[in-house]
Amino acid sequence: MDTKLPPYATFGQRLWFYGFRVICGMIFFFLIAPIVTIIPLSFNAEDFFTFTPGMLALDPEAYSLRHYRAFFGEAGYPLTGLLIGLGIGIAITVALRLFKGSKNYFPIVIFAILGVIVGKLTGLEGEEWMTPMRNSLRIAPVATLLSVSFGTLAAIGLSQSHVPFKGVIMAILISPMIVPLIIS
Which of 22, 31, 109, 153 is most buried by its number of CB atoms within 10 A? Predict the structure, then answer.
């Protein structure tokens, strides 16, 4: 894909070309900023993910790998799961490449992550990790099914031209995307 502008591009075309990239970059930053904030918290030496005064002062004693050691060092087989997941992902990617000509490496990443999770779950014991993991695995499919079902019904209903208060209903349905959960 050629991303260069032709020499005869007008001022408006040049403005849109570069402005669009700036807008996309700002949207990407807006979406990735929460993750960038959480990463330093994962190295906290305390029990909870909070910015402590020691972390803000860049004190080396305030940082630790204890949360990573607790998850990857206890029972379970995350490396075995990773290898099995990578194998499945590579096999699917090769099959897609042979039959469809696809150059997508997404299955490798997905199955590697799933392999680590499944490998970890196979050997986990105790309430510290199992209860939250079990709750997440029970709640997530139900929440997904409900949200997809209600979202589809709302989309079908709101696509009709004769819906009264269509603008108000759309505003209510879209408001959770506009106002972050932390603020509300």
Answer: 109
User: Which of 155, 153, 152 minimizes the C-alpha distance to 170?
Assistant: 155
**pLDDT per residue as tens digits for the range 22-81:** 999 999 888 888 888 888 888 888 877 778 888 888 888 888 888 777 766 666 666 666
Q: Where are the domains of the chain?
A: 75-128, 139-184
4 three-class SS: coil
Q: How far is CA 181 from the centre of its chain?
A: 16
Query: CB of 55 within 8 A of CB of 63?
Result: yes
What are the residue ranges of helices labelled H in the chain? 11-41, 53-56, 66-73, 78-100, 106-123, 127-158, 166-178
What number is the average pLDDT over the span 125-138? 72
Q: Reduced to 3 states, what is the DSSP secondary structure of residue 44?
A: strand
Averaged confidence pLDDT in the chain = 79
Tokens of 143: 């929440």
Which has the closest alpha carbon to 119: 83, 77, 88, 87? 77
